[in-house]
Design brief:
The protein is of the alpha/beta class. It contains ten helices and 13 strands. The longest helix is centred in the last third of the chain and has 21 residues. This is Phage-like element pbsx protein XkdK.
């Protein structure tokens, strides 16, 4: 009977992608001796009683958001001096966060020695299909899933924050930025001043994969919405330097993976017709993302991966040299499905060259 449920789910996910991408979730790790454990907050009125004033402020900073406020802030409070049975108190906190949904991780009091640990942990989550990212201070991880925030001397009223102390604000800003726009030039109206940059220093910082905020003479705003990735490869080009693009790709990955796992794997015969129906459902999802302005129109397509299918058939003893292309597509691949997908996410307008002729 084909794959009607899969098709409906993909269409629904495509239709709600904009709504789901408007407000992300921040995971905030705090050190304290009170209000220990996990707290899921939907606004600042939910802040746990007993937290230090500094930690309350971190939650408030996360909730400021960007165009929107974050959907929620998942707070985990731990005492670093507590004795635990296995690992460290930080390990216990990270083990909990593995079990909950979030988009951006932030740890205001992170030690220098733990930055690499967190980067590795975030990478492991992504390898396991949980497409999370982290905002870390002064950590040139060279990864698309780490935001390297480096601006110091952030003055808000009578308080001056370090980069580490303002990472919560940046995580909330990114989580509250819809997928249709970028954080580039997003204002931080509460900030009075920050460290000074020359234009060359700003450009160099951004080229180095640093997320910076600066005063443009009127207000403090984001320089450019970049990840810490600076070293590109054939698999990860310049697109992966942009937070907006990575967020779109992560949403698509999770939508497609979850739908296939929940609605397809083990539930249908691996016939050619069912493969085609699955691919059609994925393409319908792409079309909806095109309508919503997340993908470039007409440049997104899933299809049977003919080359991989040919390699597989040859590995199981099938003589593919004498087969026509359509025969290879329709061949029995046992429990394997090979899909090739080409996509073109849309970035935001950021660089404008204008020639004026008089």
């Amino acid at each position: 009977m084909g794959l009607p449920q899969v098709n409906i789910v993909f269409k629904t996910l495509g239709a709600t992608a904009i709504q789901r991408g408007e407000r992300g979730i921040v995971a905030l790790l705090l050190k304290d001796t009170a209000a220990l454990g996990a707290h899921v907050l939907t606004n600042i009125t939910d802040i746990p009683i007993g937290l230090s004033e500094a930690n309350k402020k971190q939650i408030e900073l996360a909730f400021i958001g960007g165009e929107r406020t974050p959907n929620r802030v998942v707070v985990y409070v731990y005492d670093p001096n507590t004795t635990v049975t296995n690992g460290t108190p930080l390990d216990v906190a990270l083990n909990y966060l593995e079990t909950v949904k979030f988009d951006y991780f932030v740890f205001p009091e992170i030690e220098e020695a733990d930055k690499t640990k967190i980067t590795t942990w975030i990478g492991l989550q992504r390898a396991n299909g949980k497409m999370v990212k982290a905002v870390l201070p002064h950590h040139a991880a060279d990864k698309e899933y780490i935001i390297n925030f480096t601006t110091e001397n952030i003055v808000v009223g009578d308080t001056t924050y370090t980069a580490a102390q303002y990472c919560s604000r940046i995580a909330g800003l990114i989580a509250g930025t819809p997928l249709t726009i970028s954080t580039t030039f997003q204002p931080l109206p509460e900030v009075d001043s920050v460290q000074t940059y020359t234009k060359d220093q700003l450009n160099q910082a951004i080229d180095n994969g640093e997320f910076v905020i600066y005063h443009d003479g009127e207000k403090v705003k984001v320089g450019r919405g970049v990840t810490s990735l600076v070293t590109t490869t054939q698999d990860k080009g310049d697109d992966f330097k942009k937070i907006k693009i990575v967020d779109i790709l992560d949403l698509m990955y999770m939508d497609i993976r979850k739908t296939i796992e929940d609605r397809y794997i083990g539930k249908y015969a691996n016939s050619y017709d069912n493969k085609v129906l699955l691919i059609q459902a994925i393409n319908a999802y792409y079309e909806q993302l095109e309508i919503d302005g997340l993908l470039d129109v007409g440049k997104n397509r899933a299809e049977i991966d003919l080359e991989q299918q040919r390699v597989y058939l040859r590995s199981v003893g099938v003589d593919v040299d004498a087969m026509k292309e359509q025969e290879i597509k329709e061949a029995n691949t046992r429990d394997k499905v090979f899909i090739l997908s080409r996509i073109r996410p849309l970035d935001a307008i950021e660089d404008i060259d204008m020639k004026v002729l008089i």
